[in-house]
Amino acid sequence: MKNFFKLLAATCAIAIAGCSGLGGGFVDPRSTGAADSRSEAGDPGCSARTLVSTGGPFPNDAQTLAVRWTGYANFELVYNGQIILLDAYFDRGAMFPPLGFKAADVKRADVILLGHGHVDHMSDAASVGARTGAVVVGAPVTTEKLATQNSDMKQVRTVTGRGGELLRFKGYTVEPILGRHGEPPHDVVEAFDRALKATTAPATAEQAKERAEIRARGTSDKRVVAEGTIAYLITLDNGFRILFRDSGGIVTDYEKAAMARVGRVDLALVAVSAAFLNTLTVERALEHMRAYRPDVFMPAHHDGPYNDLWRATEPLFQAMKEENPQLVTVSRVYREPVCFNTANNIARGQAPAATMK
Ligand SMILES: [Zn+2]
């Protein structure tokens, strides 16, 4: 067992060094087979910085999962010819670093999973849903907002995350689980907001107008905190599990119950807490890691506008790896792909019992 982890660490170092040296795609360091690494490393679907939903290439192998982060808690997942968008906040305005594409460029998607209805998670869900015909999933407070935006409600699935709502799609299932929105301490947030106001340029009239228009495409309903934040457990047909959590709140009893049932996930895509102080963001990240037990952790919601602070990920990675040295942490820039051979967990005997034949 010890040797396996040594090999894992060595493979990890080689894979990461190799991919940064070549400027190519990330290769799942959990892979123990050279053939797997070769196929993903040479795959345009695992190296192009173009979203598949905006016309980029699919991975060559149907078993390959390609993950691209596109700011805040947006991710594009591509697997088995399917495109899943996690959150939909693309046209962020001139106060933000550009993502390299616009909402209008997203032409193809099968499913959009909305973690919650705040503007920075759903502002483009209605337009992208209409253009792509994707199924759009969200909590009641989220889909109520979609209903006010000329969404075709036949495409929309409202979920509470309280159980019994398993959604089946081509090659995977999605289990909505009621989470909880982040609640960073007011005194900390106010102090940092004051400091930012004092040290950065205020929005121009034009920027403020743009910001208000974008804000109108999300909700600020108070129900978002306790009833409107949904974690999604995505289980591929080969047993590979992904947990998506787009706000850094506490782990709920619903999440604990779901994780007690499934045990672990392969990949966790989890928002960094908005509490500014690393002592607080680390504490929450450890709570998430202990709950979801991922092999691979990718942070979300850590970028910000030009005049705001990005949330540091390294202190989280450091603390998580001190507790779990086998954890693989991955954070890449906008649209850089991260590829996984989803059959690996089966080869390593980590598939759930139901898929182990
Ligand atoms: Zn929020």
Q: What's the SSE blueprint?
A:
Blueprint: H1 2-22, E1 26-27, H2 34-41, E2 64-69, E3 75-79, E4 82-86, E5 111-113, H3 119-122, H4 125-132, E6 135-138, H5 140-147, E7 156-158, E8 167-169, E9 172-178, H6 186-199, H7 205-215, H8 224-227, E10 230-236, E11 241-245, H9 253-262, E12 265-271, H10 278-292, E13 294-300, H11 314-323, E14 328-329, E15 337-341, H12 344-347
Parallel strand pairs: 1-15, 4-5, 5-6, 6-7, 11-12, 12-13, 13-14
Antiparallel strand pairs: 2-3, 2-15, 3-4, 8-9, 9-10, 10-11
Helix pairs in contact: 10-11
The chain binds zinc ion.
Strand content: 15-25%
Question: Looking at the structure, what is the overall shape?
Answer: globular
Biggest pleated sheet? 8 strands, mixed
- Give me the strand/helix succession: HEHEEEEHHEHEEEHHHEEHEHEHEEH
The fold-level CATH name is: Metallo-beta-lactamase, Chain A
Instruction: Please give the order of strands in the largest beta sheet.
Output: 1-15-2-3-4-5-6-7
Structural class: alpha/beta
What percent of the residues sit in helical stretches (DSSP H or I)? 25-40%
Number of helices: 12
CATH class: Alpha Beta
> How many domain modules?
1
Rounded mean pLDDT is 89
Low-confidence stretches: 1-23, 352-357
What's the quick description here?
This protein has 357 residues and is α/β, with parallel strands linked by helices. The chain contains twelve helices and 15 strands. It has one domain: Ribonuclease Z/Hydroxyacylglutathione hydrolase-like (Metallo-beta-lactamase, Chain A), CATH 3.60.15.
